[in-house]
Amino acid sequence: PNQYPVPDNYMVETTYGKKEIMITCFINYYNEKPRYKIQFGLNENEYVYSDHSPTDAANAYLKAYYEKIAFEERAKNPNSLTSLEDHIKQYFSAKDNVTIDELVFTINNSRFRIIYQPKANDEAKPIFERLSQINAIMDKKIPIYLIKLQQFKDKLNSDHEIHITDSEIINEVESSLGNGTRRSIKDILRFLIPSMVSKGILNYSEPTLHIRISGDGRNVGHKIKHVMSYDTLCIALAPLIEELHDIKTGFIDNNGYKWNIELYISADWKFLGICLGHKSANSANFCLWCSINKSQNGILELNNERQDNWTIDKNIDDINQNYQNILRHKNSPLFSMIPICNWVVDELHLLLRIFDRLWALVLSEL
Fold first, then answer.
1. How confident is the model at residue 210 (pLDDT cuts 50, 70, 90)?
2. What are the C-alpha distances in Å from 228 to residues 39, 240, 276?
């Protein structure tokens, strides 16, 4: 549709296979994006569709078609154990809840043991149905909203080599760029607070909520890079940042109770640095919390005085207002509502770094 415009509700009817199975393919547009639909079955009363690509719609059709064929085959050859189970029930009360767990028999002095268990599909179906019900309820309780990042679609680094040559895959991936989803932290709190109060995790006599914000970067290929960019985070996190500013002074739940909010942010050093507007972890003034220079790193004593008593001397309000005048800060912090003392390096990354250093010392002694 991007190169050769196809009109809305365009239809193609075709047949395939020795049995000349007939299907009808449609293309419709919703919000200026194509939806690929395939109708099949008796009187074409069944259908599948995809908002991604024709290939995705075709795969959905094949899955539905073969599931239908498998169901028809099972109907033609009912499991013999079912009739045997019904025969056994003639000699027991219905209250006994008789089921067949295993069958043992001998043929020509060869002993066979068959263990009967429900089919995987039979077990998965109720789980899938229950998950669908839960998702439908959650979509109403905590709606999902769309984030537009389309303006960053044209900023992809053209210096990287593309290893995918399928034009359909490339078009599908590029069409999905620039879109993200989010949920409102206010909706999440309104949903969680009643349950946590009833479980005794929260109580109204100590109305303080400690909320930790966390994040990390993710690269999914040479051509598509996500998250680890200050400009992208500014747009992706704008709704969250606005909500955090709103609830910083307090949050009122559905029952009218006001909760005090204590905010924290925890991530690896790089993500924290980007959110704080810092240049990089290998810069001269690398620390996010103080003004230490890397030339001072490892010096624990100077003029017979210990130098390991480093304290937090930066202030989030000062960084937010005067970041141009603070060494190694090039942008204002994204989470200016969180005190600098509540910016914490993720303990997993910190532990891994400590083990890396200790292991390096071990290897150096070998």
1. very high
2. 43, 17, 13
- pLDDT digit string (tens) for 109-166? 788 888 776 665 666 778 888 888 888 888 888 888 877 765 444 444 444 444 445 5
| 2 vs 174: CA distance, rounded Å | 11
- Contact at 8 Å (CB) between 273 and 280? yes
Terminal alpha carbon distance of the chain: 63
| Angstrom distance (rounded) from CA 278 to CA 327 | 9
pLDDT of 159 reads 41
Residue bearing tokens 């400009």: 231
**Closest C-alpha among 254, 255, 271, 244 to residue 346:** 271
Q: What was the pLDDT predicted at 154? A: 47
**How is residue 223 written in tokens?**
């051509």
> Would the pLDDT of 1 be above 60?
no
Q: What is the CA radius of gyration of the chain?
A: 31
Q: How far apart are CA 235 and CA 150, in angstroms?
A: 10
Residue 203 pLDDT > 50: yes
According to the model, what pLDDT value does residue 157 have?
43
Looking at residue 361, its pLDDT comes to 82
C-alpha atoms less than 13 angstroms from C-alpha of 312 in its C-beta half-sphere: 11
Count of residues making up the chain = 366
DSSP letters, 167-193, are: HHHHHHHHHHTTEEEEE-HHHHHHHHH
Residue-averaged pLDDT of the chain: 79
Q: List the one residue out of 232, 231, 329 whose CA is nearest residue 276.
A: 329
CA gap 289, 313 in Å, rounded? 7
- Classify 38 as helix, strand or coil: strand
Question: 175 — phi, psi (to 5°)?
Answer: -70, -25
Joined tokens for residue 115: 């263990």
Measured distance CA(160)–CA(167) in Å, rounded: 17
Inter-axis angle of helices 185-198 and 238-247, nearest 10:
50
Query: How far apart, in whole angstroms, are the C-alpha atoms of residue 64 and residue 142?
Result: 31
Alpha helices by DSSP H, the chain: 54-76, 80-89, 120-141, 167-176, 185-198, 230-236, 238-247, 269-275, 316-322, 347-365
